[in-house]
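Possible regression after last week's pipeline update?

I re-ran a chain I had predicted before the update to compare outputs. Posting the input and the new output here so someone can diff against the archived version. Not blocking, just want to make sure nothing changed silently.
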Amino acid sequence: MAIFRAAASFRHYMSKSCFKSFPVGNETPSIRRFFSADSLASFQSIGFIGLGNMGTRMANNLIKAGYNMVVHDINRNTMKNYSDLGVATKETPFEVAEASDVVITMLPSPSHVLDVYNGSHGLLHGGCHIRPWLLIDSSTIDPQTSRELSAVVSSRILKEKRGSWESPVMLDAPVSGGVLAADARTLTFMVGGLEEAYHAAKALFLSMGKGSVYCGGSGNGSAAKICNNLALAVSMLGVSEALALGQSLGISAKTLTKVFNSSSARCWSSESYNPVPGVMEEVPSARDYDGGFATKLMFKDLNLAKASAGEVGLQHPLTSQAQEIYKKLCEDGYENKDFSCVFRHFYSGDDEL
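New output (post-update):
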């Protein structure tokens, strides 16, 4: 897969002489020795890279919280919008790094993350020294890439020593909740990396969401996210299939939803994000499945889950079946619709009148 070809080239990139060798998936004693939570309490300048549907809302909430922001995106119109608002914009990720104490990335795929970090003008372009003490990646990517990238970041040296702390730290911190939660500042962050850095960064997470869960070492946040989205994809398919079957058997979706939500079938896909148009307000199914979490992104996350399951030798029949269903939706032209559109466009379910 392209993801793993990118990861392979990334492993070659790591062999350059300015990088030290670090054990994948664990924080090194040297980082812990240099770390001082008190010395990291200041967030004088926050860089944000990736101003798509999610990133724009996350960055906006940081601006509302009063942080001094520096932003970058490949979309020139988006950059102009922020510039017109008086927010500093930079032409490259490297320029963002040079102007920031902390950098947050929110990008579509592992290849985009690798390019932003390691491209010709990436965050790590400036050699072995780096200004930001903390880099937070909120993209949904595979755990192995997160761990390898964290090791590279940790091998760098800070341009300006902070107390006795000399090396930067990376956290993988993907989110759950989608565009609606990003807008409402109710995201949940799943965080992997150095625990002290997680605690130091909590104020940032709470400026963009309602809470965060520390998941353990580097890559564990990414692992938690793909597992969460796998469970979500399967539950949405189960709810949609059951509701479509109920309609065919003569029971309304509203009635069957009441049954689900007061009995053992109760879940987020039925109670908070119902896929049947006319059952709930203020969810994608109420607006022709616009907004929310795009089908193409769910398909991408299922690809990550399937690849990860294959790497560890885990049987994954539900992952594979869900992947095929969401692949078909994308092929049929619904890749930009919310993933709950599976009810209408795969199961041919009816709107609730």
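Follow-up from reviewer: compared with the archived run. The radius of gyration is 21 Å. Marking as no regression found.
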